[in-house]
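User: Hey, my collaborator sent me this sequence without any context and asked if I could get a structure. I don't really work with proteins. Can you help?
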Amino acid sequence: MQQAEEDQLSTFFANRGVDIDAHRAVFETIRAASVMVAVMEERALRPLGLTHAGYRLLCELWIKGPLELRDLAAFMIVSRPSIVGTVDTLEGNGLVERTRSTLDRRLVSIVLTPAGLQLVERADVAWHDCQVEVTSALSTTEKRRLAALGRSVTQRALLLRDSTPPS
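Assistant: No problem. I've predicted the 3D structure and written it out in structure-token form, which is a compact way to encode the shape of the chain:
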């Protein structure tokens, strides 16, 4: 952001009683995350036919093994119905399969197929290469500090979510 724009925003929000430092910290964090995901998805995932949501879901199955839809939805921080579209797309591409529980037919687990495993391994290499590129301007100490700050803000946000009754 240009200095003149920052000054204009600071003046605008300061006149409204806004904590400009809190505003900037959240705004820049969201902006950085959005830009990084968009650029990394375009460079690392789209050439492999994946979206960021699809990649995250495949990674979760790769790391943890078969999971129920509700567990995938909780990981992705979306509703259970919202995860169905991503699963449908991945299933249509032969990357995951739905399996019904033998104990409770209402429960459906999502399983990574051999093609899904092969693709997520390739995607992970491409994603990591982009992570290295995106953070190449930072020292190791700065990368670790950025990660620690991200964890702190995330923990606080989750605490607020869990302690605030739904409206």
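In plain terms: The chain has a mean pLDDT of 90. You can pass these tokens on to your collaborator as they are.
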